[in-house]
Structure formats: structure tokens, C-alpha cells
Amino acid sequence: MLGPIVRAARSLALPLLLLQLMLIVSACGLTEAPTHKTYTYSTMASLPKDRVTNPQEVAYTYQTGENVVLSWATQSGQDTLDNKPQPVKIEAGLVGPFTSIESLKKAISFDGNNIAGHVQATITPIQTNNWSDKAVDANLQLSSSMPAGYYMLVQRIQVGQGYQPPVPTGRIIKVIATPGS
Question: Distance (Å, rounded) from C-alpha 62 to C-alpha 175?
Fold first, then answer.
């Protein structure tokens, strides 16, 4: 006779325990941790097509003294549980000069992540953060005394405090002397 009563009590014990746990959890007011959308700046926008004066060279031609307008658009990143955005620093410059596109390409490392040469021009670093969904622009000023030749456009995008070396963008700038200089 005691057997059926024990079985009945056991069969009710688990649902009652679960009901109590649900009441306790709902009373605690647990909420889901807030997330925030992040954005990345990884690829520089294309340079103006009208600057490619010789399709065989695939180089953008600028005269000394001109500005090269550079732009970075955002791409959607992953959601984060961080309570504040990570700083993002964007830098860019020109490495060269090289006498030809072939000599420039020989200066690029086998993995395409480095180029040997001297930095001849740089932008003022751009400071933003990974919560900003805003495109950023900068002017790369080519000095009037800059040597003519071929240059590789390089960029460095640092997120947080880590170090990221500058990498070639694959965009070649051909600098020519301003007529009359």
C-alpha cells in the first residue's frame, strides 16, 4: 500500500521542484546581458578611375603637390558584450619611390604583407572606435619636393592597444613632377 503513495510522491516531486526553481529565477529579475554592434575598417575605398592614365600600368597618377583623398567605409562586425568601444587608429602612407612597377613588386614580401622601402608621405592618423558606423576620410598630401616614381600605398588599422604593422594595399601611385617645377 505504501508503494503506490511513494511512487505518486516521487512523480510529483520533480515538477514541484522545477516550479519552485522557475519562481525563484523569475523573482531574481535576471536579464540578458546587453550587446552592442561593432564595425570594422579593413579596406580602403577605391581611388578615382580617371587617375589611371595607362591601363597597362594599373597605377594611379598624381602630380607632386596634390592631395590623394583616402576613404574607409565600415563593415558590420560581431556583437560584443563590452561596455565601451575599442579605439581604432587608421594610418596610411606611401612607400617608395621605385623606378618601375616591376621593382616595386620585387620589394613586396612573398606573402604580400610587407614592402621594403622608405615612407615618403603619411596622413594624419584617424582616431575612431569600433562602435562607430561612420566612414572616415583623410588627405594624403604629396609634397612638391617628393621624388617622382612609383609608390605603394600602405595602411595600418589598429584596434585596441595591439600593434598592427602597415601592410601594402595593392594600390600603386605614380607620382610625376608638376609641370614647370
Answer: 5
pLDDT of res. 4: 66
Distance CA 180, CA 157 (A): 37
Q: What are the C-alpha distances in Å from 70 to residues 6, 48, 50, 56, 98?
A: 78, 10, 15, 23, 21
This prediction's pTM: 0.78
pLDDT in tens, 126-175: 999 999 999 999 999 999 999 999 999 999 999 988 788 889 999 999 99
**What does each C-alpha distance from 110 to 88, 107, 114, 168 come to in angstroms?**
28, 9, 8, 12
Residue 181 forms part of a structural domain? no
Q: Note down the domain range covering 88.
A: 39-176
Confirm whether 58 is domain-assigned. yes
